[in-house]
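BUG: 3D viewer hangs when loading the predicted structure for this chain

Environment: internal workstation, default settings.
Expected: structure renders.
Actual: progress bar stalls at 90%.

Input used:
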Amino acid sequence: MLPRVAFQHCQIILPDAVLTDGAVVTNGRGIEHVSPRWDQIPAVDQILDLGGRYLAPGLIDLHIHGSNGVDVLDATADHLATLSRFLVKQGVTRYLPTTVPTDESSFVRVIEAVSHYRQRQPVNLAQVLGIHFEGPFVNPSRCGALRVEYIRDFSSATSADVFLDHALTTQIPIRMMTVAPEIQGGLALIRTLADHGYVVSIGHSQASFEVCEAASAAGARHVTHFPNALAPLHHRQPGVFGWALLNQNVTLDVIADGHHVDWRVIELINRLKGSNQMALISDAIAPAGLGDGVYQVWGETIEVTNGRTRNASGTIAGSVISLWDAVCNLWRRGYRLSDLFKMASLSPARVVGIDGLCGSIEKGKRADLICFDEAGAIHFVMVNGQMAYQAT
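Structure tokens produced before the viewer hung:
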């Protein structure tokens, strides 16, 4: 029997409220009891007094290319363990390693590394959920920092064999792909991916509003790092930008690092979409956590200065924040914690269909928990009810 542990004297962050002096009971794997009163809990094996600190659900990062020197595109199973160990210290309890357009053999290598790691990943590290393929079926005119030589059309089913065959026969339960619906064969690709269980997201695109509507009907229901790498809003051509903000059946994600999107634009997005339809992502690359400097990423030189990435052409090339940084950035700007953890936990879980398993502090869900204080310092992180990180 795994021990039943009660956390008391804590501020519990729920999807729509904060319990100011409640208690949570875990049973070594999941959440067994949530109470607004710390003195109204069942018998347990251990009681931990959190001294009024916050207790929140673990973060879920849907878009992360790497951190701490690990690049998903080159990662082995051991590298993924290193990445998972680093991320859990940042409060991330589940994530989707994310690729960029590359050659076929590299896609195969990433798929096999993720599959191999998932079969043996420790239960007390940040859990790899699957893979997010950012491209290669995107618009070269909106490639951003993606390498244009690897971008392709969906001219035939064979152009997606590695995603429709290899990725489906390995231990990768969650598969997400960012697609530009306006490319040749884009709508057919979206239908095919959706039929094969992919979460399809629109990104690196300059699709018209009407093409976005057709993409939605085909199975696309999310937008990647909004509004980056999209055609800007025009009063006669609303495009993906206007469509995503107006369509209440579409979710989107945002990089809140102060470089990718102006804080006032994030406020505008939040007012129009709300925390139920808006997720936070890191879009972190391998130099995240290493500080300013010059790095080799995806075959090119990336300079990091004052936390901003820049490739040789001057384009932003991913971020160097953690998802926890994104949460704290918006917390300092007055966003409610209950909304922030919807954006960083529950909304991402809904995007990939695991909100019944995790994403919020509720009875029956996995005990993925973060304890932190008013200064934003993380004191401990639990994954699957197991202590994964404790600050010294």
